[in-house]
Amino acid sequence: MLQLVRHGEEGSVVELALDRPGSLNAISTAFAEEITAATARLAADPTVRAVVVTSTGDRAFCVGADLKERNGFTDAQMMDHRLTTRLAYRGVLDLPVPAIAAVEGFALGGGMEIALSCDLVVAGEDATVGLPEVGVGVIPGGGGTQLLTRRVGWSRAASMIFTAARLSAAEGAALGVLDEVVPAGTARERALEIAARIAANSPVAVRNAKKAMRLGMGTDLASGLEIEDACWRATAFSGDRREGVAAFAEKRTPNWPGR
């Protein structure tokens, strides 16, 4: 139900393709477990420099929870499922390298939350996005209430979530939900282009930049600057910094040691 494909000469860009087309990539218990396992492998692999999350079908990136499976759950099974799916969303969110979602078709509920767990979201112009959970008696539980609010602000997030709105790609981009809208069918290609540009930079610097941004986002400015300083120090005395300066002086492409 998942495909991992490496791109680039060194395979430093990894495509994580959601592959459950018969259910439009609805997140079942087994599917959530696969996402958790895959993201754990990616997080532990020092050769990975960027991750692109895609779908093998063009009808949907992911339509969210597998409601057919949930319909038969007892309360105890529902809670077990909840713990399993939380790990899947956190697996994407906690990737130490930049993650880019390439959205085609529907990205709704948990599917939208997978996209929001990425650092950047690229969508085809025919995409439809939203967090419609209140319409079926629950709330976004994969980080949506927190990630969307941080991304677009309180009032815009409140409007989307409280009304269970479904937005076109153009509407999503206008609100800041999406970072880039491209011609339908080209989101994956564009996301891989961005990932390749990321992968060309120092892996130590990129990882530490993401760490500083993520850790500092929820703190006051003074605390955030201390986090930034710690991440700067971890980067400035690395092999990557020495190689970057040498390559600049010698007018050549850096050969990053990645340590």
From TrEMBL:
Name of this protein: enoyl-CoA hydratase
| Species, as recorded | Ornithinimicrobium cerasi
Q: Name one GO molecular function term.
A: enoyl-CoA hydratase activity
Q: Which residues form a coiled coil?
A: none
| Entry-linked SUPFAM superfamilies | ClpP/crotonase (SSF52096)
Q: Where is the signal peptide?
A: none
The processes (GO biological process) annotated in the record are: fatty acid beta-oxidation
Gene3D superfamilies in the cross-refs: 2-enoyl-CoA Hydratase, Chain A, domain 1, Lyase 2-enoyl-coa Hydratase, Chain A, domain 2
